[in-house]
Design goal:
Keywords: FAD, Flavoprotein, Oxidoreductase
Family: Belongs to the FAD-dependent oxidoreductase family.
GO molecular function, one term: electron-transferring-flavoprotein dehydrogenase activity
CATH superfamily of the largest domain: FAD/NAD(P)-binding domain
Number of domains: 2
Strand order of the largest sheet: 5-2-1-9-18
Number of helices: 10
Helix content: 25-40%
Domain Pyridine nucleotide-disulphide oxidoreductase N-terminal: 4-44
Distance between the termini: 36 Å
Bound molecules: flavin-adenine dinucleotide
Largest sheet: 5 strands, parallel
Number of strands: 22
Strand content: 15-25%
Structural class: alpha/beta
Radius of gyration: 21 Å
CATH class of the largest domain: Alpha Beta
Domain FAD/NAD(P)-binding: 78-285
Length: 361
């Protein structure tokens, strides 16, 4: 009898694993939404909603043999997954890849795709009408958003506010310095080492004057709170031995297991395995899981196989500021406009993910 694999979450981890295992196991992918959300393109979609036609990709052409169940998974056990409807999906191996949520309009956050489209349209209209925009949070999403707005709407006044002392202090200083100079040259004003004191929402853009901890104010027509992702880990939190890490991620053992259940794995944003919450990091976990699950299906004992080793701070990190400029940390060196544009800025990996989901690239 073929091994049964249940995968919860059709994000980056879920779709790649389902596709690569469907020919050697009976794969069931459980996903609450009708469409895959390609997050890197959701930043540019705020300035150019036409990109949504390729950034929100239907799941119906993803798998050939495996099945996709459109449902909310409610709980996980050693024998399978229980859906919110009460239906049980029996499985021999379970992978929890429920990812994370972020501010509107970047991710669907449990709502359906039409709500995400409506949020994108609403925020785009607010942006078009705004003269002054403030972005709170200068992680990759906040920094890219500042670059996209400065590129698409050079007449707007854009402020990027960060509580850190520089851009990307965890990476070599050259990366942050180069991006800071490019943003400033595009007219973006950067304020470091301050906190916003009156955020009306942490999850949705809003209008209003922003008060900063250094006593200054930014009279803004639109404020984007972009303060990072939180893992969607509720399914894992109650499992025996589960330990909560940063941003509500669940710590995993050396074989990517988040609890004492021997056949339940977790990967991607929901798992704290020593990697950042990025697609780039998830790709290393996906490769390890593919190889490891194939060996387990072939009869190997999991704990005799090589444990997962995280990518850590050497993981590549690509930061376009609109379609033309940007900088990237590529492990051994920091690349400039040309490579950043080629690798990410021009296409934002839209062709890759449309192809993976069985659509015209
Ligand atoms: C705006 C933005 C831009 C980004 N850009 C980049 C980038 O350029 N490069 C990069 O490397 N990283 C980027 N990231 C980070 C990247 O998106 C995440 O690391 C990635 O999405 C994690 O993939 P995942 O498979 O773990 O989960 P996700 O992509 O979050 O997918 C999880 C899936 O699980 C589903 N789900 C959740 N709970 C349930 C449930 N109970 N039942 C059924 N389904 C469920 C969700 O609907 C979702 O489809 C960006 C993030 C954001 C917010």
């Amino acid at each position: 009898m073929p091994h049964r694999i249940a995968i919860i979450g059709g994000g980056y981890v879920g779709i790649e694993l389902a596709k690569s295992l469907e020919n050697i196991a009976e794969v069931t992918l459980i996903e609450q939404n009708s469409h895959f959300v390609h997050a890197p393109a959701m930043v540019r979609a705020v300035v150019d909603p036409s990109i949504l036609a390729r950034a929100l990709i239907p799941y119906d052409t993803l798998l050939q043999r495996g099945r996709i169940v459109r449902a909310v998974a409610q709980s996980v056990s050693e024998t399978g997954v229980t859906l919110a409807s009460g239906e049980e999906i029996a499985a021999d191996h379970i992978i929890v890849a429920t990812g994370s949520h972020n501010a509107v309009p970047f991710k669907s956050n449990g709502g359906d795709i039409e709500r995400l489209r409506a949020a994108n349209a609403r925020v785009h209209d607010q942006l078009v009408a705004a003269k002054t925009v403030a972005i709170v949070g200068a992680g990759a999403v906040g920094t890219e958003l500042a670059g996209e707005i400065a590129h698409a709407f050079p007449e707007k006044s854009v402020h990027l506010v960060s509580s850190e002392s520089d851009l990307f202090p965890q990476h070599p200083a050259k990366l942050g310095r180069a991006l800071t100079a490019k943003l400033q040259a595009s007219g973006v004003s950067l304020t470091f080492g301050v906190r916003a004191q009156n955020l009306q929402s942490l999850t949705e853009p809003f209008a209003g004057t922003l008060s900063l901890s250094n006593g200054t104010e930014i009279a803004s027509d639109l404020v984007f709170p972009v303060i990072g992702s939180k893992a969607s880990s509720s399914l894992l939190q109650s499992l025996p031995g589960a330990q909560l890490g940063q941003a509500e991620r669940i710590k995993t053992d050396a074989w990517m297991r988040p609890s004492q259940l021997r056949n339940v794995f977790a990967a991607g944003d929901v798992a704290e395995a020593g990697d950042a919450m990025t697609i780039v990091s998830a790709s290393r976990q996906i490769s390890w899981l593919k190889k490891t699950l194939k060996a387990v299906i072939a009869g190997k004992n999991l704990e005799d196989l090589k444990p997962y080793t995280p990518w850590g701070p050497k993981a590549p990190f690509l930061v376009p500021l609109g379609p033309k400029i940007g900088n990237s940390f590529l492990g051994a060196f920091t690349a400039g406009d040309f490579l950043t544009r080629k690798l990410k800025g021009t296409d934002l990996f839209l062709s890759k993910y449309n192809k993976l989901l069985g659509r015209d690239a």
